């Protein structure tokens, strides 16, 4: 499944997928869920978490300023706070949409 259309509607990113489904991502939740190492941190050889801010879930006032496709598998969003290193695989976005709907994100 691939995005067919991506738009900003109000304070959300709306994605219409190739199967006809639609998902909506509030800017702040999309920014908090960035899978980048600068956001989530990364593990060293011993399993220690290095860097990132994995506990930060609030990014008040942050908006999506743009995006671009990455290969045929992900979207890279740009945010008003300068963050742009997260690659959001399509499957990750579908899982994130479900987590938002379930109140887990």
Question: What's the quick description here?
Answer:
22% of the residues lie in helices and 36% in strands. By secondary structure, it is of the alpha+beta class.
Describe, in plain words, how this protein is organized in 3D.
This protein is α+β, with helices and mostly antiparallel strands. It has a single domain, classed as NE0471 N-terminal domain-like, CATH 3.30.2020. The strands form three sheets. It has a three-stranded antiparallel β-sheet. A three-stranded antiparallel β-sheet has the order 6-7-8. It has a two-stranded antiparallel ribbon with strand order 4-5.
How would you describe this structure in keywords?
22% helix; 3-stranded antiparallel beta sheet; NE0471 N-terminal domain-like; single chain; 105 residues
**Under the CATH scheme, which class?**
Alpha Beta
Portion in helices: 10-25%
Q: Strand content of the residues, in percent?
A: 35-45%
Annotation field: number of helices? 3
What is the 3D form? globular
Which consecutive residue ranges, at least 5 long each, have pLDDT under 50?
none
Query: What does the main sheet amount to?
Result: 3 strands, antiparallel
What is the succession of H and E elements?
EEEHHEEEEEH
Distance between the termini: 22 Å
Mean pLDDT: 90
Rg measurement, Å: 14 Å
Number of DSSP strand runs: 8
- CATH fold annotation: NE0471 N-terminal domain-like
List the domain count as a whole number: 1
- Trace the largest sheet across and list its strands: 1-2-3
Structural class: alpha+beta
Q: Architecture in CATH?
A: 2-Layer Sandwich
């Amino acid at each position: 499944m691939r995005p067919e259309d991506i738009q900003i509607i109000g304070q959300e990113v709306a994605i219409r997928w190739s199967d006809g489904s639609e998902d909506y991502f509030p800017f702040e939740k999309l920014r908090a869920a960035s899978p980048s190492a600068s956001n989530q941190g990364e593990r060293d050889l011993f399993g220690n978490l290095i860097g990132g801010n994995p506990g930060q879930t609030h990014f008040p006032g942050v908006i999506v300023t743009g995006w671009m496709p990455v290969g045929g598998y992900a979207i890279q969003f740009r945010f008003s706070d300068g963050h742009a290193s997260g690659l959001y695989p399509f499957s990750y976005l579908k899982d994130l949409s479900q987590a938002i709907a379930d109140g887990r994100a």
